[in-house]
Amino acid sequence: MSEDEQGESGAGQEKTRGTGRLLRDRNAALYLGGVVVSGFGTSAMWLACGIWVKDLTGSDGLAALCTFALWAPTLAGPALGTLADRTRRRPLLVTANLVLAAALLALFAVDTPDRLWLLFTVLVLYGTVGVVHDAAEAALVPAAVRPELLGDFNGLRMAATEGMKLVAPLAGAGLLAAYGGPRVALLDAATFVCAAVLYALLRVREPAPEPPAADWRKQTAEGARRLWRHPLLRPLVTAGGAGMLLSGVSGAAVYPVVEALGRPPAFAGVVYVAQGAGSVVVGVASGTLMRRLGGRRFAACGIALTALSAALQSVPYEGAVLAGAVANGLGLPAVLIAALTAVQTHTPREWLGRVAATANTLLFTPTAVGVAAGAALVETVDHRLLLLTLAVLRLLLALPLFRPSRPAVPEPNSPPGQAG
Q1: What dihedral angle (degrees, nearest 10) is formed by the CA atoms of 107, 131, 81, 236?
Q2: How far apart are CA 273 and CA 255, in angstroms?
Q3: C-beta of residue 150 within 8 angstroms of C-beta of residue 93
Q4: How far from the centroid of its chain's Cα atoms is residue 355's Cα?
Q5: Is the dihedral of CA 222, 335, 283, 386 positive or negative?
Q6: Which residues make Cβ contacts (< 8 Å) with residue 110, sequence separation at least 6?
Q7: DSSP at 351
Q8: pTM value?
Q9: How do residues 249-307 score in pLDDT, each as one tens digit?
Q10: Half-sphere exposure of 357 (CA within 13 A, CB side)
Q11: What distance in Å separates the CA atoms of residue 339 and residue 233, rounded to the nearest whole number?
């Protein structure tokens, strides 16, 4: 069945699917509860740790190093994700949350600059366990949530994550200012314990994985090859990675954009809130949109919206900049949701941990490269020219995804009529 036909058949069943049905699904509701709870703690901690280091040392570089410590383990995503294919995923999720809860308690000992090594060690562990956690979650979701609800689930997961980013950082900063960093770590640890309980309550039949036929390195390579050779997954994941690279470049331009408006740097916070609001909206609507458009066209429309966003933000008018931020928030998550849903739909479950982790590495690592490139470009190139160039590049990136994909060979996880 072509993707056009899949989109039409999905639209005909719209009344029987969607967000309401998803939230009535016990496993989906528990999963999303875990995402909301742990996401709140994580968002609070990620901002607070940088402020904490800045307060202790006065160093901007060391404060920025906190974010690097959290993201660095994603580079080893394919290898770390293989763990999720070598053990049961639900116990792995529970264990991962409890390990992070215990590790965060060690931060009560961080009260002087000479103990910052402990904070950075915990942050690297945080990022490492987070990669394994995300791989295990992506692999377990198709067993716990009905196949026709995967798009809705991934969208609501994105909405929940982005929603927490709007409120949790302020809560974390306030808690840090009032009671110090250890109290933020305690809050984060408590959220991980709550998430572990919610994951433990999932009702899912999960057979023990077969003993691995190859060593760890070969298993990791097999997962990467499977992703790259798949005719539906490769275009979505590569488009998503390229889109995130360009988003990193445009993100570095936010302060020149704000300066062109005659606003103080703090106005960037308003821009980010507008973007976050757009991400929440598209997350809630993504399941419906994917059924109507198909995964490829949904991703293509999202990338096209980010092109519109870059064009709007090149205009020195506050309304245009904020509209561009909303457009970016609406568009950027679309390709990520489409890619993850396609991975879950078209990958056999015994491969899903390593394939999902490889996809996450290819999708999210380019952001850091884009930010670094953008930081250099905004110093040498007029930000308006840079943004207009990004708009053209994003349109070129979207165009191939508007073309119908060739049919893929059905996979064990692939329900009838599910778009890739």
Answers
A1: 180
A2: 15
A3: no
A4: 15
A5: positive
A6: 52, 56, 116, 118, 119, 181, 182
A7: G
A8: 0.76
A9: 888 788 888 888 888 876 877 888 888 889 889 988 888 898 899 889 999 999 999 99
A10: 32
A11: 7
